[in-house]
């Protein structure tokens, strides 16, 4: 059974692609983007946990 680790990442509007590309290169998969405090965007990511 796969176990997961999760991360929440604040997104800067003018650098969203670069931020997500960097996390993707590190093996993270984007799950969802929601509005956080003060209408800032927050990305929720997951990747398989290394056992």
From TrEMBL:
Protein name as catalogued: DUF4177 domain-containing protein
Species per Swiss-Prot/TrEMBL record: Leekyejoonella antrihumi
Domain of life the protein comes from: Bacteria
């Amino acid at each position: 059974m796969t176990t997961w680790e999760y991360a929440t990442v604040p997104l800067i509007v003018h650098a969203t692609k670069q931020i997500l590309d960097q996390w993707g290169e590190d093996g993270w998969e984007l799950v969802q983007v929601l509005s956080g405090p003060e209408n800032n965007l927050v990305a929720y990511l997951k990747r398989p946990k290394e056992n």
